[in-house]
Amino acid sequence: VPVSSRQAFPLPSLPRKQPTVLVVCGPAQNGAIGLVCARHLRIFDYEPTIFYPKRSPDPLYRDFTTQCEKMDIPFLSYLPTEVQLINDAYNAVVDAVLGAEAEAGEGREPCAAILATLKHVRIPIVSLDVPSGWDVEAGSSGGISPDVLVSLSAPKQCARRFLGRQHFVAGRFLPYDVQKKFELNPPEYPGTECVVALRAPR
Amino acid sequence: DRDRCRPHRAMHGPSAGPGPRGLRFLGQEEAQAIDQELFTDYKFSVDQLMELAGLSCATAIAKAYPPSSFTTSQPAVLVVCGPGNNGGDGLVCARHLKMFGYEPTVYYPKRPNKPLFEGLTTQCQKMDIPFLPEFPAEAALIDELYGLVVDAIFGFSFKGAVREPFGSILGTLERITVPIASIDIPSGWDVEKGKADGLQPDMLISLTAPKKAAMHFAGRYHFLGGRFVPAALQEKYALNLPPYPETDCVLQLT
């Protein structure tokens, strides 16, 4: 995800002087991936800030949190409901709230409030795997509209309804027999890249 | 003879090296201390860092020895894995080499009884990476079958005598003519002083930061990998790492 974020929003092109990115992490695996993404964004010289209101008790995910804290990545104690504050402070939002495993998650707090706010941000949103709040298969009606989608392993059906600027797949490391078994027909990854763009940027 | 053509390098001091200005070359204890801090303070898991390290190695190899550059009919690579973490890095590297279009084969004679290494072995096996039952008897056989050897035998914790079967393995590797890419430390070398009559790899992938042994490295390609060291840790140890290009996980030093 950080690699595809970087490809979609190269540092020199960011509108704000500081390369700030807000990473919003949900309570489960999608949120944990967001934490890893934030750490790598920091290594790539972005300035991520994390909002992670409901922390997973999973020891692995707790270690991801420690790694971010020790790298001086700030954790917000609340998400501003005044959307203009988010628009002004950050260049982009990484949506790591809900993934393919979420079912009733989007209806529960704090996800519902987060999604209500994200629906109104004017800065680009990069969604991990599934735009949060969308049905994994049917997509969304009136949910968030990400600018960039990074499908993990393989695109989900709802990706057919994705209308944003760039769709990346991060699935290079799936073993061949898994690819064949599920008839994934993945695209060719260039060189040693771990992500590939499925659509040319508009 | 290959070795006589190697450029000679001047050394500028006990911890500065011939690389980019200011880049520090670590002693063995320092390297171990940094590692410990990553696990104890930063709470990285061995799995996480090993995966990033192995990926760096495969990426560096792909940059220096692209599959099209092999003279063997397939881009065949022999990955020799030692009994510890360096061997684990090798297993991860082999898996990513397969993803990048190479045909790796692994030799892994001493396997730790730990889930981490068992998992990495399974991942390779499930990707149809063969594991040799025995080491090729002759250097000439390795030269014939493989275009590159990855040395993942011993790393920065290595001390003292080389135990079998690795003594014989290193003896054979010292006689091959195909290039060797060593992970972190050329195996058999003293981590600080090197080994004049030891392995002469063509490539070295230093992980995290180069160790002092790298000052004696005379091969063509020196890469830095393991792009996971937090800025605060870099400052604490004054690593003076040059910037990595963009989102690359490796940096070519020479």
TrEMBL record, chain A:
GO terms for molecular function: NAD(P)HX epimerase activity. Pfam families: YjeF_N. Transmembrane segments: none annotated. Gene3D superfamilies: YjeF N-terminal domain. One of its GO terms (cellular component) is mitochondrion. Residues 1-186 form the YjeF N-terminal domain. NCBIfam families: yjeF_nterm. This is ApoA-I-binding protein 2. The lineage of its organism: Eukaryota, Metazoa, Chordata, Craniata, Vertebrata.
TrEMBL record, chain B:
Keywords: Isomerase, Metal-binding, Mitochondrion, NAD, NADP, Nucleotide-binding, Potassium, Secreted, Transit peptide. Residues 1-11 have a biased composition (Basic residues). Its EC number is 5.1.99.6. The keyword Protein biosynthesis does not apply. It comes from the Eukaryota. Residues 31-241 form the YjeF N-terminal domain. GO terms for molecular function: metal ion binding; NAD(P)HX epimerase activity; nucleotide binding. It catalyses: (6R)-NADPHX = (6S)-NADPHX; (6R)-NADHX = (6S)-NADHX. It is an enzyme of class 5 (isomerase). Residues 1-22 are annotated as: Disordered. GO terms for cellular component: mitochondrion. This is NAD(P)H-hydrate epimerase.
